[in-house]
Each structure stands twice: as C-alpha cells, then as structure tokens.
Predict the structure of DUF6249 domain-containing protein.
Amino acid sequence: MDITAVIAIISSFGIVPLIIFLVHRHKERKALIEKGMDMSLLVGDKKCSTLESLKYGVLLIGLAIGILIGNILDAYTGLNEEVSYFSMIFLFGGLALLVFYGLAKKQEAEK
C-alpha cells in the first residue's frame, strides 16, 4: 500500500474543514473587535492550552508507539501490513487518550 495515496486523501479532506474553520474564526474575531467587546474573549485560557498540549503530546507518543508495534507485527507475524499498522495505531492512540484522561482527572483533583 502506497503511503502517499493515504496522505493525499487525508490532507485533501482535512484542508477544507481547516479553511472553513479559519475563515469563520476570522469573521468572529473581526465582529468582536468592531463591537468593541473585551479582547480577553479572543485569548484562550492558559489552563486549557496546557491540557491541550498534554493531550496532543500523549496522543502523538501513543501513535508513534502504535506505528512501531505495527512494524514489529508486520515483520514477525503473518498479519497483513494494513491490519498490523492500523490496528496498532488506533489501539495505542486510544490508550494514549485514556492515559490523558487519567492525568487530567488527577491534575483536576489536586486543585
């Protein structure tokens, strides 16, 4: 399976929602500025951005581990390449999100 075809399909379907989101956010911010509303509405909460960074960091680590384990399964077992990679990516990506949930709850309980 050619990985460039997968990347091309994912990026082509991902670009359109990204552009729509950015245009909508620009219009929303422009309207807030024109109405003279508080600029603090435009700046995100620091706590939220810290948790988002933690979430994406843990998720990317999980995806990387999934790719590595998928490669090991592909090399040493009789599984198909697609099955080994995709199953491990989804498995470890989901586990990473569960780890993030536990870390976020623990951090919330400490406050």
